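I keep forgetting this: the sequence line spells out the residues, with the fold written below as integer tokens. I include a record here:
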Amino acid sequence: DPVSPPRLGCGSMGGMLALPPAQGPHQVGCTDVMVGHTRQGLFLRLFYPCLPRAGATEPLWVPRPEYCGGLADVTLGRRWCSALLGIAIGSCKVPVSWNGPLKPHSGGYPLIIFSHGLGAFRTLYSSICTELASWGFVVAALEHRDHSAATTYFCSAEAGTEEWIPFRRVPQGQKEFYFRNKQVHQRVQECMRVLRLFQGIAGGRSVPNVLHQDWDLSVLKDNLDLTKVAVMGHSFGGVTAVLALVKEPSFGCAVALDAWMFPLENLLYPEVPKPVLFINTEKFQTPESVAKMKRLSSRNSQTRIVTVLGTVHEDQTDFAFLPGKLFSLIFSRRGTLDPHKALAITSRAALAFLQKHLKLQEQFGQWDELLEGVGDSVAPDAPFGRSHL
């Protein structure tokens, strides 16, 4: 069918990217948190249930132009495309309330720590993070500093100078497994530090945000339930979530979106103590990767592997909501399933799983069938195409 020419500029009137509004009962707020003045610190975007506020501003989807440069380099291999990418997506907004006031919750919100994929960064999963927050979770979307992000930065103490950490490809002559395995272990350490950060805040520790946002982290003190913490991620972040269960007993379960299982050493599979929900796309996984997932499900009867039919790897990112022409320019192919439907399946399956394993008093059990691969567009461990990593 004919494709209308892309319109430049962006916003709720269509434009280049229209992220869907969340479907849950809570409005969603969002803020950025940077802690510490070295690369051993943390950088994350926080999504949380918020109070409605008149005239709330919406944050940019790509927070700064530097990220367009990183994306152009990683996805297109051409940094010169950065300006074009900036024109196409640079003014797109996320439909959440920037620095909106946290909605108090006497029982405390459960926490999800989210890990991004290779060549991504903290904001590229805004649709799934916003959706989960709208159902009553605080979601901390990390930006990893292991050179796997398209780019990232920290602010050193000297006059607040920014130091950028570029994406790094596997060095010539080095085996990819060893390079990626080191990264996945660093990523898990960062996930554990995020948990420690929130444990400190809950214990009354004052944590200064380097970014001086108009949002005080201490409001979280009595509004988090840190007995209910899950770890989640996409691709490289999916395997990060699996390894995090081995390293951190406080994580109750993991949700792995199209996990890239390659970087995890085999001897750790028997050590995964908690259940994992693997939500795969139809075109990404390899037989080797699925075999690794099945090893986990044979050890833990609560682990589930489902496949969302008609989807490709990028469908689990915000890129799914780009118009077809632009999507096809950046990625080789797109899925046949409507991205709104794919997001609904993914988030509902995750919510049902989280309710079960974090013991939440919610109504998410209505989506339990998705965990067994029952329903339109879902299948238990469906056939797979070849990986195109």
Q: What stands out?
A: DSSP finds nine helices and twelve strands in the chain. Residues 303 and 378 are 16 Å apart (CA to CA). The radius of gyration is 20 Å. The chain has a mean pLDDT of 90.
